[in-house]
Amino acid sequence: MYSVILSTASRYLLILLLLFSVFLLLRGHNEPGGGFVGGLVAAAACALYFIANGLEAARKIVFFDPLRIAALGLLLAAASALPSLLLGNPFMTAVWIDTGIAPLGKVGTPLLFDLGVYFLVLGVTLTIIFSLAAEDRRS
Amino acid sequence: MLSLLVTGFLASALAPVLYRRFRENFGWIAVIFPLFMFFGFLSRYPEVAAGEVIRESVPWVPSLGVNFSFLLDGLSLTFALIITLVGAAVFLYAGAYMKHYANTGRFFLSIGVFMTSMLGLVLSDNMLLMFVFWELTGISSFLLIGFDHRKESARRAALQALLVTGGGGLALLAGTILLHRVTGSVEISSFYGMSGIITSHALYPAIAILLLFAAFTKSAQFPFHFWLPNAMEAPAPVSAYLHSATMVKAGIYLIARMNHEIGGTPLWQDTVLIAGTATMLFAALLAFGQTDLKKLLAYSTLSVLGTLVMLLGIGSELAVKAFFIYLIAHSLYKGTLFLVAGTLDHETGARDVMKLGGLRRAMPVTAVTAALASFSMMGIIPLVGFIGKETVYKAILELEYWGVFLIAAAVAANAFIVMITLFVGFKPFWGETLLTPRPPGEAPLKMLIGPALLAVLGLLFGLFPGVFIAVMLQQSALSILSETLSLKISIWQGFNLVLLLSFVTLLLGGVLFLVRSRMPERLLALRAPALLKPSAWYEGSLRLLSSLARLQTRLLQNGYLRNYIIVIVVTAISLASFALYRSAGRFVLEPAVAVTFYEVALAFIIVVSTVLLITSKSRLKSIVALGVLGFSIGIIFVIYGAPDVALTTFAIETLNVILFVLVLYRLPRFLKLSRSSNRVRDSLIAGGVGVFMTLIVLYATSFELSPELKRFFAAASLPEGKGRNIVNVILVDFRALDTLGEMTVLAIAAVGIFAMLKLRTRGRA
């Protein structure tokens, strides 16, 4: 069931939703939001695109293998623990750097960690959706 | 010593790369590695001989008392020298022997790892470190026995060896933990002088039995002996190295090392004595029916291991002396003979002694080497084996009560060993020439040097026992008995009872050889009933284990999703209900806050959508009802001021509906498939879960939650976590490790779903 309206709308919505998801991710530290919700919203955006335009198009938009995105997320989260180890602090102690640039503010390993959560949730959800969809088409 | 071991592991890792580069002459390159180690240890010989004990310690996990602490005394130096020297012979030999195998690079990797971990084992002063190396030797042995992994028998033998010795390894760990409870330390050198405390402690029997279990499995003592003959599936260099000269002596090393602090009690000495004697005798008897070169040698190895254990069980000065000489002698001659057996197999294509004969002309050097080692094995003057056997007999004769029985057993066992030697070391080379599958020829130089070197050393040690053995014996005795010996070693002790016994042994062995050569094969077809064979017990327990696993899988994981859910839910509820029941008195059933209009409305929507969800005849309607349900719950979160949770709930509900559509889209029509009895059961379970969750919530709200946590997080969130959103700061900073764990679970689940769907489709296609 192909709908021109949905298909056209999804293209703009995809960008908007993705931006929104990044917004959620970044503001998560101070306001409601965070990597988990951000990842879910991003996944929902891709899912919407998939519903409107089909699996192949969605795969092309995502570009990377979703399982690799999930792996990347896990890697980022694990990597965020390394600075604490190198500094000799207890495992996973946060390390912050004050950039001094106003819009950036302080940047620290928790941001990296949250980014990891974001990618992991996105990757896992898309893995599930795409695998199910592929299975669906096959039968 | 740590750097030496690290070098060892690194060198092993390089082996496959180097092998690819220098395939032809790899033996000459590989031999550098053990030789380097050998001379490294030999350079410490003067210090150790002077009575010095070299220690070295680098912290690893100091909070758990696990350190890279090493101890180089007479006992460990002797073992280290044996390991590296036999290693050198074997590495060179394997360079030629393994040429026709696939994955030879990997072979050298495994055997290099083995040598390094075996060195680590004998050098460790820390028992937990020793455990690590103990298991590493077991794993490399597994890889080497199963090296020809296309053969089913090799895989089975490898697994058997791993399970038996691995089980022993766990016992070693358990024993170490108990020892730590008693002494507060896992450093072997700190046990010195604590013998009284340990042996009088209530945990002592458990410690002793666990450590002996570990030693007996590793050193293949009765009734755990069966894995060793099966391990002969490994290539000949492996049998020579791991399964005669070094690894199987690890258990004996453990007994010797532990002897002075844990030994001396009737429990320890008697168990060791009985197990050793039983192994010595039975293994020798079992060898009688064998005709395979390597199996024959394996049973003789078992018998010798038994003898060594028995000597430790006797535990007198003389016994320790005999133990030490016999240990060295055995490593030298048995390593040689295994390599000779490999050469015979390699050059003629046959391993059955009945099919080999008269090869001395075709393989003169091998024949002489074999003869030299055989003389040592039979205990003929002037080889080191002779001194070994003489001392063994003398140590036994010293005993008052058991002396007569033990000497009879020892003479019988040694007679069988003489028979084995005649079959392995002489029969293939002398007598009439038999036709072999391949025309025989002398082995390449690389395969001659190693065995010949070991055999000649056996002769030199016999001729000059005062040079190395006597010195090391003094130092080792210090470690085993913590006292110095007042004994001299000499090869000629004059005409006495012991010499007479030696002659009797040789004579008996010769008679056995003649009897066995002329015996009709069908007499040998007689087999012991399975019930008496420990290997049958092993098979039986494995079968029991797998049938237990099958039963449990059938009960709990039968492939029906509803069954999994029932099992999980019912287990959780029953366990938690019990806890809830015990604190039933503390319920407060009044609503804590006034109910607003929104809440009533939401509750109404939730109830209606639930009823719709259950009764609906259309699948799509059910999904929509479920979505409504989820969103209503999300709104409740909004009302109670948890925007974070609400946001997440909304996102999840949205995706949930998408997923459900994807899955349900392709299911068969929505039919009533389950029987009404099932439906009653399911509704009971579902109702139970609902009631239970309600109770939990009521229970949780009837307490004033500790405000400290809330206060801490509220106060620490901004200054320490640099964020105002407490939930998120907790997730990504304060409790980031938990989150990381959950992320891992999520990723694994995704991989699982991916694999399940892909494999299913491939299986169908």
The gross shape of chain A turns out to be elongated
| Low-confidence region ranges of chain A | none
Largest sheet of chain A: 2 strands, antiparallel
Shape of chain B: elongated
Tell me the distance between the termini of chain A: 17 Å
Q: Percent of residues of chain A in beta strands?
A: under 5%
Q: Could you estimate the helical fraction of the residues of chain A in percent?
A: over 70%
Note the total helix count of chain A.
Answer: 6
What report would you give on this structure?
- The complex is a heterodimer of chains A (139) and B (765).
- With 139 residues, chain A is mainly alpha-helical.
- Chain A has helices spanning 4-27, 35-53, 55-62, 66-79, 82-86, 109-138, and strands spanning 96-98, 106-108.
- Chain A has one domain (4-138).
- The longest helix of chain A has 30 residues, at 109-138.
- Chain B is mostly helical.
- Among the domains of chain B are: 264-523, no CATH class; 526-556.
- Chain B contains 32 helices and two strands.
- In chain B, strand 1 and strand 2 form a beta hairpin.
- In chain B, helix 27 packs antiparallel against helix 28.
- The radius of gyration of chain B is 34 Å and the shape is elongated.
- The chains are: A mainly alpha (139), B mainly alpha (765).
- At the A-B interface, helix 2, helix 4 and helix 6 of A face helix 28, helix 31 and helix 32 of B.
